[in-house]
Amino acid sequence: MELAQPRDLGQDLALGKRRHNELCRQKRVFNARNRIVGGDTEAWDIQVRDQKIKEATEKARHETFAAEMRHNDKITCILEGRERRDKRSLCKAINDFQQSFQRPETRREFDLSDPLALKKDLPARQSDNDIRNTISGMQKFMGEDLNFRERKKFQEEQNREWSLQQQREWEDARAHQRCAEDLYLKTRLQFDETAKHLQNLESATRKAVCVAVKEFNKSQATESLERKIQEKKQEQEDNVAEISNLLHGDLLSENPQQAASSFGPHRVVPDRWKGMTQEQLEQIRLVQKQQIQEKLRLQEEERQRDMDWDRRRVQMARAALLLERQQRRQQRDLRRALDCNNLSLAKEQRLQ
């Protein structure tokens, strides 16, 4: 079972009001007794009040969405700033490591491209451990260098320092990873709290709109009922007065003396004359038949208009349902894309 959205309730309410106003206008236009000349101020006041209610509802909805967007933008800016700071710290650490442990002087092939090689060059022969001594000279053999113990000790000390440095770097990386995981967990919890808060706000807004619509419909029904009772009462009073006047007047008393004229017996007063010829009676019956046919035609046209309004209302309701389904699919796709983006950011942070 699908819940009714505020937009659907507003559209149904607008269609009902439009149809009710059209029926009231037709009654006023086709009623010769109550017809007026000029504009319908009451209908205009109702339209203005309906427009104000609609504008207030739309304004509250837009303000809610704007607050949500501002909050999300603020969170995004904070996360981007933290990411930039982490990248800057990582680049600085890499540069410091290169400056400290990867200098050009510590390379194995640095002697091939040393710009000060000529200044550092040694004489033709300095000692037995001179690297320029050839094999044919037989000046030094494998393992017989004089600095063997110092070189081995230095290499062991260097290996130990490298091992300790790797351990410290590994521990720092573990600490950074734990901090990143804690930050991601806190951010995810904050997002969940924000989504829950926004959902509660939406539910409260929807309930407030439903209550307002219900109260408005109730007031409209009460005003319509009171207006109908007053119109019916006034019509009954008018009918009673008309019947009383007709019963006590000369029109229904059939008094033949009221048609006598003072100009002679062969003259009659036209507005008091009761006698009519057969042709005049036939003419009156023909006019009555035409009036009956015209009334039937108007009733058929009204029935066709009602059917057209019903068909349009069904089409608009169907279009609104399709639009709501499309919006739900878009929201689901957007949520899925946001989850994928968060997952990729988490993976990048873990790799760093």
Automatic annotation (TrEMBL):
Q: What is this protein called?
A: RIB43A domain with coiled-coils 2
Species lineage, top-down? Eukaryota, Metazoa, Chordata, Craniata, Vertebrata
The coiled-coil regions, if any, are 218-246
Subcellular location per UniProt equals: Cytoplasm, Cytoskeleton, Flagellum axoneme
| Pfam families documented for this protein | RIB43A
Gene name linked to the record:
RIBC2
Q: Which UniProt keywords apply?
A: Cell projection, Cilium, Coiled coil, Cytoplasm, Cytoskeleton, Flagellum
Specify the domain of life of the species encoding this protein.
Answer: Eukaryota
**Similarity-based family:** Belongs to the RIB43A family.
**Subunit description:** Microtubule inner protein component of sperm flagellar doublet microtubules.
Record keyword Cytoplasm present: yes
Query: Whose protein is this, by species?
Result: Canis lupus familiaris
